[in-house]
Protein 1
Amino acid sequence: MLDKLKELTKDTAVYGISTILGRFLTFALVPFYTNIFVPSDYGIITNYYAVIGILNIVFLYGMDSAFLKFASSKEIGDEKDNFSTPFVSIMITSVFLCIGLILFKEEIARFLGAPDTSNFVIYMTLILLFDSLAMIPFIKLRLQRRAKVFSLFKILNIVLNVALNLIFILVLKWGVVSVFIANLAASVFTLLLLFPSIYKNLRFSINKELLKRCLKFGIPYLPAGLGAMVIQVIDRPIMEHLTNLKTVGIYQANYKLGIFMMLFVNMFQFAWQPFFLQNAIEENAKEIFSKVLTYFTIAGSIILITLSLFISDLVQIKIFGRSIIGPAYWSGLNIVPVVLLGYMFNGIYIIFTAGIFIKEKSIYVPFIVGSAAILCIILNYALIPLMGIMGAAIATLAAYLAMALGFYFVTQRIYTIQYENWKLIKIFIIIFAVGTAFYILSYNNLLYFINKLILFASFFILLSIFVLEKSEINFIKRKLLRVNVK
């Protein structure tokens, strides 16, 4: 089991290098945007990318999940069949979707509250097209465990995107449209990088039997994917409707500070999905999966507590005279711990999806995610008028928690795993205790830096006493502290 966990950790680390570097470069655009654009302009960017996120699910309609499932086992057809069938299917449907979006570009721009930006819709549509065509080749690299190539291509995409943003905005003075043109150029470049892999694996034909199985497994991920994306982005348009674009801009800038937990979840997901599909036949697979959840939760809790305590200090650090986010956005920092916890539950739900893939029971997915999305919408409308941006953050957290619980109960029926529930409960009790102390001290203006350090140390002490076993503590000392422990 230890060898398998090391394998997962290694792949996670490789994906992590690209994910951290890539996301860091993307995140670097946040202080750039918030110091260059007024909140209303940043709100326009936020709304357009919310739509891109939703439509990306429509363009893929679950074919990415289906490819991951069937290409890993090759139950039907040969290797080229398993690549070509979902790729050609996505290519054909994407063309028709692009035509439809461009025909209604004025209506879409008005819906987004920016009627003078209809040309942005064209750029948005082309971004969706090229990103959709790149999805299957990227998953192919993951299944081949070519993590380094995957990571390199992702990094190049982000580097080019960031560089073009700087050129178009600072040098050419193109304004907000620069964000979309830079993204489009990076998406085209990435697809060109993937072209040799596409050429090698593609035949312009569709295996009808495989397509039928792909659609049966993948289609439930269309409403589920839309539901998941609704959870991620619906708070922005609801907030814009209930408040204004300035509030949306402040919310988005602070929500972006959850990037550190999102990075951890993303790099883990890239490694986790091929890992559990390839190791499901192992005799001790369920024991391995149980340990994965425990260690993921421990790692996530460390990120959560660390950032929650020190985020107000981090954002004030100036790099080249600019803070991480502009001072005009600091009023929203109190949502960051809630955002981080939401992303953590998102990662836990991803772990629970293993049973769905292994047992091919995707029919449950849209019901769970859809229910969570409805909960998110209801809570946004209920809480934003009462609590402002904190209400939106709590609504998203509640939705991710609902998804994690929903997948847990469903997968325990179809693929029972004996998780270390008591350990998990103790981890969350410790998080709650430290978090309560954090908010009490903040409310009473007693959260000085020394108090933060005391809370930080207390968290690790409680974790080592009540959660970690002696063998695990010794392992940490050997690997991280380089201490020889008998």
Protein 2
Amino acid sequence: MGWHAQLKLDYRRDGEHTLAHDQHEGPLRVLQRLYPEGPGVCHHVVLHPPGGVVGGDELHLQATLTEGSHALITTPGATRFYRSEGQRALQSVRLHVHRGARLEWLPMEALAYSGCLAHSQVHMDLAPGAEMMGWDVLALGLPAAQQPFVQGRFSQQIELRGAWLEKGVIAATDDTLLHSAVGLAGQGVLATLWFAAGQALGQRETLLDVARQVVGGDALARCAGVTSPQPSVVVLRVLAQRVEPAMALLVRVRAAWRQVAWQLADHRPRIWST
């Protein structure tokens, strides 16, 4: 039957504090809320104790941020989508951010093992005056372990309601997509970072400029690009051979955006360095 798990996170502002409440069913939980930046920003680490996702598993996460709250949600390590015997695995994330709230959705990478059948979706609903940063990093196979992505299928969807929708399907048999110059050109890591708002971004050009400055000095500059597909969204896309350099670039751009948009320092969750 597979694991069916749900996690609901609710954040609200109380004076100078962002308070959090969580409800869970099944093996999807959060660690104790942390405030390494002070009481205004709540850091949460989402855990999936089984350690991987297989065919038939369904993981559903919902986060709601009310006015004035600020949450940073991450994971302790990669999400592993293992080989399936025929059933699809699903990971669904729904994010609701109210006016004046800020969210940072920053999970570690997803690893698509050869033979997996999986779908990952992130749906964002931002009210006018709400802002968020998020990223999505996918690694195909385990090249360092000589386990390439030669079987299976991984589909993705990232949606900002009413403004931005990206959908993709990666099949291990699609040689044109995986290996040609008009596709991924043999790059097994796909990374996307975005800054989104519930209205047109007043700092749109600044966000584009600072991201392009960071990208221009990076070793992955030839495989990265920053665009604004819609006035309320700025997007960085990166292709790489390995996760680490792609993630490092996303971390640097995220830090630059945090400074110019929110006047907040580059505070990285401690668990990223453990």
